[in-house]
Specification:
The protein is of the alpha+beta class. It is about 35% helix and about 15% strand. The protein has 29 helices and 23 strands. The strands form 6 sheets. Strands 2, 3, 4, 5, 6, 7 and 8 form a 7-stranded mixed β-sheet that branches. The protein has a 7-stranded antiparallel β-sheet with strand order 9-10-11-12-13-18-14, with helices on one face. Helix 3 runs antiparallel to helix 5 and helix 12 packs across helix 14. The protein starts with 6 loop residues before the first helix and ends in an 8-residue tail after the last helix. This is non-specific serine/threonine protein kinase.
């Protein structure tokens, strides 16, 4: 069926022209008279190049897919994967090629793209799985997988953010009883003052409340509601001053003017900020309580107001590095909910009509005005004195004050480990840098601090060294979500709502396959979705959850068809464990400080740093620990001669395991940061040191494409879709990337940035040893450590590799 361009799509095409992105491809046709004269291999390569070129066009990221959830860029990437495995009808693309050859208008080119991609291809069979043989249950028992906070080099278009929220907030709970009592109950004088104000509103000569609030806009238009709320809160704050003399907050509304953010452009319907701040200029670090307004009461649903308030909460978390949880509210028509977001998800109160439950509304708004920083979600263990932030720890039988110098990193996420790192120093020794790392981990996980302590005692080299670790305590309790933040709220009485998960073309056609010798076991997406508690963390994700499933009822019916042989134990498939998971606030302090490896001042330094990190991995492995998360932000370099840290080293042992451990850690899923995962891990194999060594290759490959100098990121590229799609899809892409040396060299030469062009041959040499016979490895090779290190050192000494 011929695909025509819709009005909305036409606007995108006009605002984002192709310009010269296809000129090189067009010139390659030369004086060709007909596409029918091209042999299949050349046609195959030409189409791959065309689809790669189209992915670099901004319009491909903005135009919607007509096949699945997502954008046209993802469709193009999946089509390329199918072409590599001879599963694509090349004749479908010839009209598109002719449109490009003859320089047709952009509209016609994109129409032909849609024609070529819609209804494409027979179902794709997963890659056969060979070594090592793993049972379904054992594969399920590996620890967490990917999460929104591990999305790498991804631009934050609105569609991307919505997709990330769907990943993070796999399940939220609304109509949770006792939310008001839980979060507002400790606010001093709140109940009495609210009652007094409400009674005054009812008995005034001109009552402010009489069967509803005076002046409330009946059609609940956004601007009218904003003005009404401003007047209401001003009157409430003035009255409250006579009952409790404290600095209150004030309403801020930015429905038309975006609030600055380093990563995205986002407008805020309404919210609360501190009264002392000017609202003429503000950023997300000043938004204390966000709110979402909708004029239609029917907008109080997951796909509308709930996603909106979650988006705001994500921005607040990202901008405020000591925020433990975020409170907010939605107001749809006159129906209000109070929301709380934390590191296991989001919960909301029962909705109530502010014109029928006036006292409840007064108490909610006054609570937002009066709450102190701890009640509003800030971490009281990070203190400020003389404009200097610090923490206090008990170490070696003495108290130490650690001064926080600056924020190093803060994960952009809601429900996840939410790692935050600060550079710091001991108050009495400013010369030695420390790193404070806070994260929210599953209680059943091995503690990273204990693993680091063990590695340091065993004198492991080129791995960050241990200084201290603890579980953060607040109000005399271990700081966890269910007990300390939510204070035991019973979510079993709430309405549970799944964010929708629509499947991709690849995932919905993926079936379970057995080879005759039973060495090939692949799970369908439906089999992977259900049995993996708890909910997603940074690196937990059932196999196809990044490309969400089509509908829940269909997923359930597929689930019921599973064979008994492949059903996981009841303990793994217990949905309650997923719904009622918990996270605990851990703090680890390290005595090595560096910068991400892509900040290396020269190519030579980068290569030496990679060699050192591989040496560190080997040292750690020989000490009995397997890292399992080799990723771009976990490889560090230190080029400061006054800093006594390792020159290069590994960080982040939160996914590491002891090699002699029997069974799993309790948190189910796969391990690693997704775009750097080894092909075998994407296919469900148990983690080997060989997979980590393969991840080193993917990290270097990624850097060469995404950076054009020290710390100089080029923005999104055609590889951005590696963050999305199914695991099978990514495994196919990666297998195709390394399958042919000539193709790899040509594409690396074309795709590596000018700065990294001198490393094309080095990366190809690594490809040869990491992927023997142009395939993923079959047998473990202990010598791979030395082979990779030798290649890196030889390349660093090559005169063609600049030392500047």
């Amino acid at each position: 069926m011929v695909q025509s361009i819709l009005e909305m799509e036409m606007k995108i095409i006009q605002e984002n022209p192709i310009h010269g992105e296809l000129d090189n491809l067009r010139r390659s046709f030369g004086t060709l008279e007909s596409l029918d004269t091209i042999n299949n291999e050349d046609l195959n390569n030409t189409i791959v190049d065309l689809f790669l070129s189209l992915q670099t066009c901004k319009a491909s990221r903005l135009l919607p897919s007509r096949i699945m959830s997502g954008n046209l860029m993802t469709d193009l990437a999946q089509a390329n994967a199918l072409i590599m495995f001879k599963k694509f009808d090349l004749n479908r693309v010839k009209p598109l090629l002719n449109a490009v050859r003859f320089n047709k208008p952009d509209q016609e080119i994109w129409e032909e793209v849609y024609n070529a991609l819609t209804e494409y291809t027979p179902p794709l069979r997963p890659i056969a799985s060979t070594p090592p043989l793993r049972s379904i249950v054992s594969a399920l028992q590996q620890t967490p997988h990917t999460h929104a906070s591990s999305v790498v080099n991804s631009s934050e278009h609105r569609a991307d953010v919505d997709r990330l929220l769907n990943i993070e907030l796999d399940r939220i709970h609304v109509d949770v009883p006792q939310i008001h009592e839980t979060f507002f109950g400790s606010v001093e004088k709140l109940a009495g003052t609210s009652q007094a104000f409400f009674e005054k509103c009812k008995v005034e000569t001109d009552p402010y409340f009489c069967e509803g609030w005076a002046g409330w806009p009946s059609d609940a238009k956004e601007n009218d509601v904003i003005e009404w709320l401003k007047k209401f809160t001003k009157k409430l704050a003035a009255f409250a001053q006579g009952h409790r003399s404290i600095q209150t907050r004030k309403i801020i509304a930015r429905p038309e003017k975006p609030i600055p953010s380093p990563h995205s452009i986002r407008k805020l319907d309404i919210g609360f900020m501190n009264h002392t701040l000017k609202d003429t200029v503000c950023d997300w670090s000043e938004i204390i309580i966000p709110g979402e307004l909708k004029s239609n009461p029917d907008a109080d649903i997951r796909s509308n107001a709930w996603t909106g308030i979650a988006t705001y909460a994500r921005e607040v978390f990202a901008a405020q590095d000591t925020r433990r949880f975020v409170l907010g509210f939605t107001l749809c028509g006159s129906f209000m909910r109070v929301w709380e977001f934390d590191r296991i998800g989001g919960i909301a109160s029962e909705k109530f009509d502010i014109n029928k439950e006036g006292l409840r509304f007064v108490s909610t708004m006054l609570g937002f005005l009066w709450m102190n920083e701890e009640e509003i979600g800030f971490d009281p263990t990070i203190k400020t004195e003389n404009n200097q932030r610090f923490i206090e720890i008990e170490r070696e039988n003495r108290k130490e004050r650690l001064i926080i110098d600056n924020l190093m990193m803060r994960s952009r996420c809601i429900a996840a480990r939410a790692t935050t790192c600060w550079k710091a120093h001991y108050e009495k020794d400013p010369s030695k840098p420390l790193v404070i790392k806070d994260s929210w981990q599953y209680p059943e996980r091995d503690e990273e601090g204990e693993l680091l302590c063990e590695a340091t005692k065993k004198e492991v080299v080129n791995v960050c060294r241990y200084y201290h670790h603890e579980t953060v305590r607040i109000l005399g309790m271990e700081d966890d979500i269910t007990g300390n933040i939510r204070k035991g709220l019973d979510i079993t009485k709430a309405q549970s709502s799944n964010f929708p998960r629509r499947q991709s073309v690849v995932s919905r056609n993926t079936a379970l396959i057995y080879s005759s010798d039973r060495t090939s076991m692949k799970r369908s997406s439906s089999q992977m979705n259900t049995p993996m508690p708890p909910p997603p963390s940074k690196r937990f994700r059932p196999k196809s959850s990044l490309t969400p499933s089509a509908d829940i009822s269909n997923e359930a019916s597929l689930s019921n068809k599973r064979s008994t042989l492949l059903s996981p134990p009841a303990s793994l498939s217990n949905k309650k464990s997923r719904e009622h998971s918990n996270r605990i606030h851990r703090r680890v302090i390290l005595s090595d400080y560096g910068k991400p490896i892509y900040s290396a001042s020269s190519l030579k330094s980068l290569l030496i740093a990679f060699e050192g990190c591989i040496k560190g991995h080997e040292s750690l492995y020989k000490a009995g620990l397997l890292h399992r998360d080799i990723s771009i932000n976990n490889l560090m370099i230190n080029e400061d001669e006054e800093n006594h840290s390792w020159f290069s080293f590994l960080i982040d042992l939160d996914l590491a395991i002891k090699e002699d451990r029997k069974g799993a850690s309790g948190a189910k899923g796969r391990t690693g940061t997704r775009v750097f995962m080894a092909i075998g891990i994407l296919q469900g194999h148990l983690h080997s040191y060989m997979h980590d060594l393969e991840s080193f290759f993917w990290v270097l490959y990624w850097i060469c494409i995404h950076y054009d100098g020290p710390d100089k990121e080029v923005g999104s590229t055609f590889l951005e879709n590696w963050n999305y799609g199914t695991d099978d899809f990514l495994a196919i892409l990666k297998a195709g990337t390394i399958a042919n040396e000539q193709d790899f060299l040509e594409r690396a030469t074309d795709q590596f940035t000018p700065y990294y062009q001198p490393l094309v041959r080095c990366v190809n040499k690594l490809r040869r040893v990491v992927f023997p016979n142009n395939e993923r490895w079959v047998n473990e090779d202990p010598d791979l450590y030395s082979k990779m290190r030798k290649i890196l050192l030889e390349a660093s000494e090559n005169q063609e590799v600049p030392n500047f």
